[in-house]
Amino acid sequence: MIATLRAVVVGLNAVVSTTLFGGIVLLSALFRLKDHPGSPYAWCPKYWGLTHLWVGGVRVIEHDAHHKVGPRHIFVANHLSNFDVFALAAMLPWIKFVAKAELFRVPLLGPAMARAGMIPVERANRKSAFASYTEATERIRRGASVGVYPEGTRGDAYPLRPFKKGPFVLAIQAQAPVVPVLVYGALERQRKGAFKVYPGTIHMHYLPAIPTEGLDYEARDAIARQAYDAMAACLQREYGIASPPFRGG
């Protein structure tokens, strides 16, 4: 019963916080405010994520957070729950997410995401997806970081799933370092397709950056494998959960 009530409160917060922070972003765009660290385009997503964590009773513990410091990173994370989205939005600095295009068609949320510099991707359209990564490259060149879920959609278990190549093509194109992020605990907070929300802790493990400077398109699989293996090793070492051998998506 409590988990159901908590889910209702989280849902109400989604409406209120999206209206509030989305409205601030749209007003900022109307007044032609520039996008930079400390601007509404940077702190609105952060506080949007924080309010969801707070009303959900979720605490985030960061491990080796020094790996996230600095501009122009590509953060790649495993994806299991809406709450890992809230956690990354709350904890990552000046972050632009690559998100499914359907979200950009939601009233208010979609326009606010677009104005905040988030990047829509049509997952079923390969050509459109790579055009989105070109757009993401421009965001990185301006100094922002980009967050991507290489597994694509949310999963229902912790073992890692095949990684898609797009995020690593983006890293090479932008010549930006890839920072793998292993998220643990989000699955217990709210599972894919479930309504109930449970309080607790989410752990975010930032792993050493993988450099891409000087690499070309042919290195995409090697970078993806390196990121996958680092995250799988962390998952096994910290939580005793094994993942299958690397396989590109």
Strand content: 5-15%
What count of structural domains?
A: 1
CATH architecture field: 3-Layer(aba) Sandwich
What is the C-alpha radius of gyration, as a whole number of Å?
17 Å
Compute the number of strand runs: 7
CATH superfamily: Glycerol-3-phosphate (1)-acyltransferase
For this entry, give a set of tags.
single chain, 249 residues, alpha/beta, Glycerol-3-phosphate (1)-acyltransferase, seven-stranded mixed beta sheet, 8 helices, 45% helix
Task: Report on the architecture of this protein.
This protein is of the alpha/beta class and 249 residues long. It has one domain: Glycerol-3-phosphate (1)-acyltransferase (3-Layer(aba) Sandwich), CATH 3.40.1130. Helices cover 45% and strands 15% of the residues. It has helices at residues 2-30, 40-55, 82-91, 109-115, 126-141, 166-174, 186-189, 220-239; strands at 58-63, 74-77, 95-100, 119-121, 145-148, 178-184, 200-206. The chain has a seven-stranded mixed beta sheet, sandwiched between helices. Helix 2 crosses helix 3, helix 5 runs parallel beside helix 6 (166-174) and helix 6 crosses helix 8. The longest helix has 29 residues, at 2-30. The chain is globular, with a radius of gyration of 17 Å. The model has no long low-confidence stretch (mean pLDDT 92).
